[in-house]
Amino acid sequence: MTLVAGIDSSTQSCKVVIRDAETGKLVRQGRASHPEGTEVHPDAWWAALQEAIEQAGGLDDVAAASVAGQQHGMVVLDENGEVVRPALLWNDTRSAGAAADLIQELGGGEKWADAVGIVPVASFTLTKLRWLARNEPENAARVAAVCLPHDWLTWKLTGSTNIDDIKTDRSDASGTLYWSAKTNEYRLDLLELGFGRRIKVPEVLGPTGIAGHLPNGAPLGPGAGDNAAAALGTGAGTGDVIVSIGTSGTVFVSSEVSPNDPTGTVAGFADTTGRFLPIVVTLNAARVLDAAGKLLGVDHAELSRLALSAPAGADGLVLIPYLEGERTPNKPDATGAVHGLTLKTSDPAHLARAAVEGMLCALADGLDALVANGATANRIVLVGGGARSEAVRKIAPELFGLPVLVPPPGEYVADGAARQAAWVALGGAEPPAWSAEQPETYEATPVPLIRQQYAAARDAVVDRAR
What share of the chain is helix, strand, coil (3-state, %, to 5)? Predict the structure, then answer.
């Protein structure tokens, strides 16, 4: 049996899966937590990875490995490969002003969409580099190289300390604002625009490029951003729109065509196969359910039961889920809001229903944007921690208006990384076809009223100073 390892270094934790390269069968796995916050020293990721590897029985017997990770995080290194300052993560919104400035300086969102397929918001790496240059000039002066979380971990696994050896892949590079998925080239002029000077960036590898080797000589694949890895891990086909409900919410689909959305709603990312991955991302997803449960003093199972006991549309009660600001729409200083509170709707069931519907409506807006930019949507593949909620599974088709498939719970990002590693180990024109367990299918008659009342409340939300 040829074994491969897939690693998912997410916002919240690190997961390692060891799978049979030919069949995808899970052999063993491990997991370790990451610290909370939007600013984390990369050493914490490395420590968690070591713990997860140990739990998974080590990597000495694997034929290849690959790392997937949270996207956009700014890891800055000095000329000796030392971390200059803690990484700013994708969900750190302090660079919102920098994003607005970059849009203006290049001449508008259309210019950015033409250049790199995405429009600056606070999530993207270049906006964080601009923030660093403006707010921490002494740290900025020490920076010799910039990379992303999965790049840095892959590099650490090789044992190299030379910043010239850092590699990345198309999917993660496409979320930086200084690499174009359409042209497969860096835009170092945009890096210079954002940071004030040019610094070293990782070499971008193809789908089966070798980023280095483990101590046992096994090759390391190019890795991936978490969403691209999830697409590979689920085995989604043409017209399968993946909706992932984790810390953030994501709506994405593999495509032959790169979108060009000057509004910035749809980002023109790359996938792991050489194609494109149009994507819409929300900052607030499963945490909306966490917050609602905390507010009501119930666990997730009871929150789900309460939500399903209330009518569709919650009798007009609407929850706008911008609990940590929002990326889509771009409202970094917005807060959550509740509309339609009456004596009739002032009970736990209505609030639970409004929380589930509000979170899903934000994601349904993302689906609308993908379709408006040319994506084909035949069905929804629902994954992530939030998909474990019965209420989410049953209410989702009412809002998306499509069949909703829910695969068995799994570590789809780590599985995608493992499948990429198997592709590296076994070769071939396409990644190996792994058999998957049959998903559950949920269907329901669409309820347009829910989207309509959500839209009215959403459009009333404005940014406000914190």
Answer: 35, 20, 40
Instruction: List, by residue number, the catalytic residues.
Output: 226
Provide the token pair at 163: 């910043």
- Please tell me the distance from the alpha carbon of residue 359 to that of residue 337, in angstroms, as a whole number: 12
Yes or no: say if 117 and 260 are a contact pair by the CB < 8 Å rule: yes
Q: What is the pLDDT of residues 71-96, one digit of tens each?
A: 999 999 999 999 999 999 999 999 99
Mean per-residue pLDDT of the chain: 95
Please give the Cα distance from 140 to 199 (Å, whole number): 11
* CA-based nearest residue to 422, from 17, 8, 3: 3
| Residue 72, annotated as binding a ligand | yes
List phi, psi (to 5°) of 404: -115, 120
- Please report, as a single letter, which amino acid is at residue 100: A
Which token pair is 454?
A: 């959500």
The answer to whether 424 and 3 have CB atoms below 8 angstroms apart is: no
- For 419-466, the pLDDT digits (tens) are 999 999 999 999 999 977 789 999 999 999 999 999 999 988 877 654
Contact 331, 463 (CB under 8 A): yes
Closest CA to 225 of 287, 158, 179: 179
pLDDT, tens only, 254-265: 888 888 889 889
pTM: 0.86
420 annotated ligand-binding residue: no
What is residue 450's predicted lDDT score, i.e. its pLDDT?
A: 98
Helix boundaries (H) for 56-169: 96-106, 109-116, 125-135, 137-142, 149-158
Distance (Å, rounded) from C-alpha 3 to C-alpha 61? 7
